[in-house]
Automatic annotation (TrEMBL):
Membrane spanning stretches: none
Listed InterPro entries: Knr4/Smi1-like_dom (IPR018958), Knr4/Smi1-like_sf (IPR037883)
Pfam (any one): SMI1_KNR4
Protein name: Knr4/Smi1-like domain-containing protein
Occurrences of domain Knr4/Smi1-like (ranges): 21-153
Superkingdom: Bacteria
Native source organism of the sequence: Parasedimentitalea maritima
Amino acid sequence: MGTLARFHEAWSHPNYQPESVSEVELSELETEVGAAFPLSYRTQALEVGLPNPTTELWDWIEERISLADVLLGVNRPHLSYFLAPDDIREALDWRDMGMPVFLLPFLIDSLGNNICFDMRELGQNSIPDASVYIWDHDFNETERLARSFDTFLGFYLP
């Protein structure tokens, strides 16, 4: 079972299935932005869909924040929802507010910040994986969260 399926199983309400995404929707979006999603994300999003985590995830994160995390500057944002292709198109409007043009959002945290892939790492054909960043819209700051999609989701698995 992939990390997205495990994430869904751990943090979504059993009565709410992940939002399905079609190959056509993803391909059209990739053509529009001029970059392909990494295979790790693309394959799992098509297979599993986009989970809707509950606030139980936030409680779990708070219980596990350690002094080491704080000292090392480990940032585990409270994830709110995965973006469907149409939502990604809307999130790209944040570029007008300062979001770097090289970021491709795929997830929103509880504060409305964008969790993104770095399009400078992506090409027109899918690569296996890409770094995950957060763009903080309040402070107009970008921070690398993980070296890959699976590593990023792994931070949230019990």
